[in-house]
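Hello Y.,

Per our agreement to keep a running log of every chain we model this quarter, I'm adding this entry. I've kept the format consistent with earlier entries: sequence first, then predicted structure.
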Amino acid sequence: MKHLPKNQKVFYINLRGRLISNYDEFIKVLFDVEHEARYERIKKFLKPMANVLPESYSGIPIPKDLFLKLFKEKEVEDAFVYIETVLRAFYKNDQNPVLVIDELQVIGDLKIDGFLIYKLFNFFIRLTKELHLAHVFVITSDSLFLERVYTEAMLSGRCRYLMVDDFDKDTTMSFLENYGFSEEEKELAWHYCGGKPVYLVELMRVEDKGEMVAKMLKIRTSQISELLNSLRAYGEEIEFRGELHEVVYDNVVAELSKLKENVACEYGHITPEINYLVRNNIIFVDPLDNTMRSQSRLDLLAIREVIGDADA
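Predicted structure for the entry above:
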C-alpha cells in the first residue's frame, strides 16, 4: 500500500483477531469513528474535499452520530449505501479509492438475514464491475475459505486470484546472503525451511543454524504426531458442509501419505479429513488447480517423519 500512487486513497480493514458474531460487531470493525475534533477538520469531504484525509484509513471514516444511527437501524444495506457514498466522493475528487479487507474468513459464517459474505461480494461487484468506483482486495490466509469462495458462481469472471506464496529458492538465497549466511547455511536453511519468511527470520537470530533447524523440526514433528495420536485414541468430529462429520484416522494418514514422495498432489474434492488437516495448519489447498501441499517445507519434513513412524 505504501507504493500506491498518491492519488489513491486506501481503506484498510483488518478482521484478524476480531470476534464478529453479530451486526453490531461487524459495524464496529467496518468503520473508523470520527470523533468531533477530528471530524471538524474533514466534515466537508463529501462535497467533496477528500484530499484533506490521510493516504490510508483503518476503516471507512464516519461521523459519530451517523455511526450510532447505523447501530440503531441495524440494516447492513444502509452501511453499504454510506460506504458507496464515501467512495464516490473520493472518486469524483480524483482520489481513487482502494478498499482492502484482510482475513475476510472471520465473517464467513455470519448471518444477517442470510450469509453476510454473499451480500458483501455482491456489494464488491457493484463497486468494481458496475460502478467502477474502487479497487477491492480481499485477503485470506484460510485456504478452505478460498476454496469456498472460488466455487461461488457470483464471482465467476468477476475477480482475479493472486497467491502470496513463500520465497522461491533464488529469492531465499539472495535474502539470506544479505544477512551473512554462508553457502552451507543457506542450503541448510532451504532444506529445512524452504522460503518461509517467519522461519528464515528465526534462523537469522541464532548462531548455530544446524542446531536451530533440528530443534524446529523436532518440535513440528512432535506437534503433528501428538495430533494424530490424539485422533486415533479419542476420535474427533468437525463441522463440515453444515453438519457434524467424523474425522477418520486412517483417511487422515492416507491423505498425508500422498506427500511421502511428492511435494504436492491433486485432490478430487474436499473431505472432512482434508478439512481437518487444513484447520490444523498442516496442509494447504489450492482450489485453482485442485492441489494440496504442506503448509511449509518444515511441515513436509515433519509429515514424512510422522508417516514413516505410522507405517513402521
